[in-house]
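User: Sequence in, structure out. Go.
Assistant: Echoing your sequence, followed by the structure tokens.
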Amino acid sequence: MVTLVRPLSFARLLRRRGMLESTNAQLVTGAGILLVIVAVALIVPFVWPYGPEQIVTDDSLASPSWHHLFGADSLGRDVFVRVADGYRISLTVAVGSILIALAVGIPLGLIAGYAGGRIDSLIMRPLDVLMAFPAILLAIVVAAVLGTGTGVVLLAIGIVYVPIIARVMRAATLVVRREPYVEAALARGASHRQVLLGHVLPNSLGPVIVQASLLMGVAILLEAALSFVGLGVRPPTPSLGLMLSDGRDYLSNAPWAMIAPGVAIMLLVLSFNLIGDGLNLLLDPRLRANGR
């Protein structure tokens, strides 16, 4: 078979370079912010002169200074090192919950989209029931039933995300299964397992990857919300949501106790959103076609 390749004109080359630069700008910016956050979370708690749970009563509500970079909370604990340690909790919950959702949602969506019929209904209807509940409400119910703690929050958010990942995977599978190369593989005698793992799965992961990166940002907000209402990480373990809850009583005379964790949450969510937007522009064939 002869493949015709259109000559790449200078104008098309510029448009492609423009799209690539735009994609790189979002990916690099988001990844850069995330790398700085990860470095802060991994390094600061071990090198800072104060521990995240160390109480210094004489420094209660101390204002930001070289002594306490982000100030101190009501118990005299250094806010900067607590934000750094809170980042570790937030990233653990975000990554762990997404891994749970991917491990369960991808196989369910893949089988439902490929098999169709009764198998599709049997898999997707219970997931549709889960999706009928607001995410925060479902996470609160799971956390209230299972208790508090980092592991419980991670599991609760993972359960919330399973139907979302499954539906995205199913939608992508429905598109890919109708592609000519899938029909050609079946015509050559390939088994359904070989088609699923060798053709359908690899070509359906693009939307799932984009969705997972965006859901990580939402997971940060869900973890902060659960900790804020007392259903998340147990004190005195630092959590950005728990720090917001503790600092709200001192907003008038010590605003840094809330501003620091609030800005920290914003930056972390922003990094995942930028990465998700960049991946969407990079992996979406329709957007790639517009750049030609």
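User: And one key feature?
Assistant: The CA atoms of residues 20 and 282 lie 8 Å apart.
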